[in-house]
Amino acid sequence: MAFTLSGDDACQITHPSPIPNPYWVAFSPAAAKLIGLELNSDGLPSDPAWLEVLAGNSLTTNQQQFHKPISTAYSGHQFGVWAGQLGDGRAILLGEMNGQELQLKGAGKTMYSRMGDGRAVLRSSIREFLCSEAMHALGIPTTRALAIVGSELPVRRETIETAAVCTRLAPSFLRVGHFEHYASLQNVVRIKELSDILIKDYYPECQSDAEPYLELFKRICERNAILVAQWQAVGFCHGVLNSDNISVLGLTMDYGPFGFLDQFEIDHICNHSDQGGRYAYHRQPQIMHWNMACLASGFLPLLELTHDEQKAQSLLREALETFPITYAKAWQSLFRQKLGFTSEKEGDIRLIERLLQAMHDSKVDFTHFFRQLGAVRQDQIVQQISLREHFVDRDSIDQWFTDYLIRLKEESSQDRSRKMAMDLINPKYILRNHLAQVAIDKAKQHDFSEINTLLEILSKPYDEQSAHEQYAIPPPPDFEKVEVSCSS
């Protein structure tokens, strides 16, 4: 584990708080494989003791003994403002199995809970569970979700809800906020320890570099630049890109008020607490870049061990300047693939931008449009392309389709092979808010079948799945402007 550090300022032993009468709400057999859990015919752990462990009621199974569960201290910037010390307010790290850390979210108070109760509620746990596994199936780096355990324990949010504990898996839960925390304390020893662990376990290619810590910083920036490009390509909005919510492994983490785009709006805000739109869809790359600047401040004391302050700042500034270049390259590549292009041509970016502007102006469903675009044939008359009917300005979109077909012919594109390639990058199924809400509403009645159905469908987002066509349909009008709360 990353947190085998000496000293009590790094982490605190924290025992989970029990919940009464726990029961299984959801379980991911695919995630269970990561830690080598043996499952029964129902797809649940063969050892029933796991229910109590993942509820936070026990630390022992036949297979595993978790000796020292911990919560960790970190700091960070929230909505652009330094918030000081934060920490795992409701997350408890049980331990490690098969190279994966197991973390209970919602298992009670920790030293860092501040005014919180340390609990999570059923609705947010379902959303995080489903989206974690859906993002993995989309091929986007993410923490994983192993299980949800429910209880009738009441939890007060805007209303009284019931408690749930979500088990998350990741190779490491280290965040930008951990580096900010120790930099704010001028604790270079801790920063070096964290960096050495990252290099040894997750970035071994940095060991032989003349500047291993600078190279580590560059690699973290690179991973997160590519990650946010992947988010943009599937229309994913994180909702709360505070620096303490950013993984130094380049993983999507801390699923709160997230949302996938339905109607495409370039400035879509999925978090109703984000009144200024700081974390809107089109600002995610800029904000991730800003968070890497926060990380740079955490690395500065480390580089000052071998350079004067001015040189250390210059090296980090130079490294930061590569972020937008890496992001742009990844974004352009992904959107070329989404349009079915196998080569790069000068006018491609302008063609992509024109399409996105037209989609924004007409509020076209993002996922549905790109999935259906693969069915367009080069010999079609533009006016017979059914997708044009989703646009208000027909003349403008007709011109775009005309230019698009010309571009396809320039690289001798073959309709059948192009569609196959486009279907591998343009998902048919995403976790739309209205689908998650149906599962949540049923779960409140102790019917967890829809969670399992969605888990199965979202595990194959690029497949046709003819039996589940209704799950690919854009939401009804009354669900089109959903914003999600931070409260969970």
Can you characterise this structure?
The protein has 488 residues and is α+β, with helices and mostly antiparallel strands. It is built from 15 helices and twelve strands. Helix 6 packs parallel to helix 9, helix 7 (284-303) runs antiparallel to helix 8 and helix 10 (348-362) runs antiparallel to helix 12.
Task: Please give a handful of descriptors for the protein shown.
6-stranded antiparallel beta sheet; globular; 488 residues; 13% strand; two-stranded antiparallel ribbon; alpha+beta
Low-confidence stretches: none
Mean pLDDT: 95
Strand-and-helix sequence, N→C? Answer: EEHHEEEEEEHEEHHHEEHHHHHHHHH
Strand content: 5-15%
In short:
By secondary structure, the chain is an alpha+beta fold. The chain is built from 15 helices and twelve strands.
